[in-house]
Design brief:
The chain is an alpha+beta fold. It contains 19 helices and 18 strands. The two termini are 47 Å apart.
Length: 621
């Protein structure tokens, strides 16, 4: 050990100063390397080399627990300094005056564990083995958060047996971590994951058992949803006055001819070639799903609101105090009237774009989450009884411009193909057929085709030339780019208040993105309608677990998405270390130490980062 002195200077004009570090030399892979052990700061007493020797001597004596051979009485200020450094060392390496921790992270080759805590054996190094390595970190985290959610008590209260409860908890965790089919999940549980052992479930779980337990969970959907939502509300002391309604769908990659649920409709993923199933969610401002419903794939967005309001009234006591947030797909005039009639407040994105609107000269300027400028102004338009808010967003303007440019490019590419056919052998040249092709292209790109003027030159019934030019865009269109409107039945709302309420709809986007991308709710591969419902509900339960973990992390400013959390936690594995000694063979099953990022996740969720090692002996005969 030695004290390393490093020269520091903030800039070429600033004052030079020195920093000191307690370091150690060690041979690593045949090379001598220096390892920083403890940062000592910039105390001026250490500028003297003799003082450094005294402080180092005291530190080595304390750290290695070996008294000095020829002790001397050091100056009081140096003794106090050395003792201060040793206290920092003990805090950093979790060591006390009487060592209680054998895994001192300084250098295991030079600092032995405390004798009263050690267990020594003569081990045959050549016979050492590492067996049965499985993933552990994500499973260990999910188990502890499930315990916090008290799901075991919930399932027990609805009459599920201990075996069913164990399979249900494993199924929810597996869906969250692996997001695979039941067949693949059963294989992972058997060969890759420690999940069944963590839940103390000893029997093999098959894919058919996973199907069955999903059906049982869906059977008790109402009781589970009510319990789970009440539990997260109590855990996080959430103010429950805001609900967000939204709808999404997922697709099947088969015809599903005999299904009552799978119907062709408007796919959110642009899969119009596939039958769909629709699911809705009533979600709070923190992203937790209060309850959900499943509909046929051709169910229109605006036809689901009355059911969602009925569900809300059924599950809450003072429902009239709630504010409902919806996007433009649901915000029809009839639906807004229904919400108002039921006594709720609403904040909705308007389906209509007003041509003439009175904007107050005092426009409020705010910024969104990406620090982009947003202009807001509240007004009441003629012919409407509710309050409207004008929103002009730079982000939305850029998005609309980008989308329009892409659509124009695709339309021009189709026109170019038609034009090239006029001069190519075998290409379409008959004038009526050319116009048919142009008509199909205009229909396909109807959002931008009206902005083009197309001329076709004809000769003897055949088209010989095609020209297209962009029309001059009206000034009013430019002004309306990035402009949309928010409607509410609040009385005298403020721009900032309304904007903050509206932005909670981002939680819905995050929820459905997690369900579809992280938890693979799509595509649905099941054949029976009841199994489809069970699949979607199991994924929603897995999402509730995921959102609980992510919400706890957000409270500590850790904003990882779920895939990144699983990636980090998967670095922690569990394995069996086989140690052949001179008297017996020791089998030690123990998790690896979590990396720093995984430990931060454990700390933020207030979970233990490891579990007690399991030790077994086989004595030689």
């Amino acid at each position: 050990m030695f004290i390393r002195k490093v020269k520091k200077q903030r800039s070429s004009q600033s004052k030079v100063f020195y920093q000191y570090t307690l370091a150690q030399s060690a041979r690593v892979d045949g090379k001598v390397k220096q390892r920083a052990i403890l940062y000592l700061g910039s105390d001026t007493l250490l500028s003297d080399k003799d003082n450094q020797k005294i402080v180092l001597s005291i530190l080595k004596s304390k750290i290695f627990r070996q008294p000095e051979l020829f002790p001397i009485e050091p100056p009081k200020e140096l003794l106090n300094l050395a003792l201060f450094y040793y206290e920092k060392y003990c805090i950093k390496y979790e060591q006390s005056e009487k060592p209680t921790h054998s895994a001192v992270k300084l250098n295991n080759h030079t600092i032995p564990p405390a004798p009263d805590k050690a267990e020594y054996h003569n081990v045959d190094i050549k016979g050492l083995e590492l067996n049965d390595v499985k993933s552990f970190g994500a499973e260990h985290l999910c188990k502890q958060v499930i315990d916090k959610l008290k799901l075991k008590e919930c399932f027990s209260s609805v009459g599920m047996s201990d075996k069913q409860i164990g399979k249900a908890l494993i199924s929810i965790s597996a869906r969250a971590i692996f997001s695979s089919s039941e067949h693949k999940t059963a294989q992972i549980l058997e060969t890759n994951s420690e999940l069944t052992q963590i839940f103390s479930y000893d029997d093999k779980i098959t894919h058919k058992q996973l199907y069955t337990i999903s059906d049982i969970l869906y059977k008790h959907k109402e009781q589970i949803d009510s319990f789970l939502y009440q539990r997260v509300t109590d855990m996080f002391d959430m103010e429950d006055k805001l609900v967000i309604f939204d709808i999404s769908n997922t697709y099947f990659e088969s015809r599903k001819a005999n299904s009552k649920l799978a119907k062709y409709g408007r796919s959110k993923e642009k899969r119009g070639d596939c039958p769909l199933v629709v699911f809705t969610g009533v979600i709070n401002a923190q992203g937790f799903i209060r309850h959900s419903r499943i509909y046929e794939g051709n169910k229109p967005d605006n036809a689901t609101l009355s059911d969602m309001i009925d569900d809300l009234k059924k599950h809450v006591s003072q429902s009239s105090n709630y504010t409902i947030v919806i996007d433009a797909g649901i915000a029809t005039e009839d639906n807004l009237t229904l919400i108002n009639k039921k006594g709720y407040k609403y904040v909705a994105v308007s389906r209509k774009r007003l041509k003439d609107y009175p904007i107050d000269a005092t426009i409020t300027q705010l910024t969104n989450r990406k620090k982009e400028k947003v202009e807001l102004s509240i007004f009441t338009p003629d012919g409407f009884s509710d309050t409207w808010m004008y929103v002009q967003s730079d982000a939305k303007r850029k998005k609309e411009e980008s989308m329009n440019e892409k659509l124009k490019q695709r339309f021009e590419e189709d026109l170019f193909v038609i034009k090239e056919a006029l001069s190519s052998k075998g290409g379409t040249k008959r004038i009526n057929k050319v116009w048919e092709r142009i008509g199909r292209a205009k229909q396909k790109h109807n959002r931008v085709s009206s902005r083009y003027e197309i001329l076709v030159t004809e000769e003897n019934g055949k088209a010989i030339e095609l020209k297209y030019t962009k029309k001059k865009q009206p000034v009013s269109d430019d002004k309306r780019k990035g402009i949309y409107f928010i409607r509410t039945n609040y009385k005298d709302p403020k721009e900032k208040e309304l904007w903050n309420i509206y932005n909670t709809i981002r939680e819905v986007e995050s929820t459905f993105r997690c369900l579809k991308s992280d938890l693979n709710i799509r595509p649905v591969n099941h054949q029976k309608d009841e199994r489809i419902e069970s699949h979607i509900y199991l994924t929603i339960l897995a999402y509730q677990l995921v959102n609980t973990i992510r919400y706890m992390l957000k409270q500590e400013n850790i904003n990882h998405d779920w895939k990144n959390i699983v990636r980090i936690m998967s670095t922690q594995t569990i394995q069996t270390l086989v140690l052949p000694t001179d008297k017996k063979v020791i089998h030690l099953r123990q998790p690896s130490k979590p990396i720093l990022e995984a430990k931060q996740i454990y700390d933020a969720t207030k979970c233990n980062n490891t579990q007690r090692a399991v030790k077994k002996y086989v004595v030689y005969h």
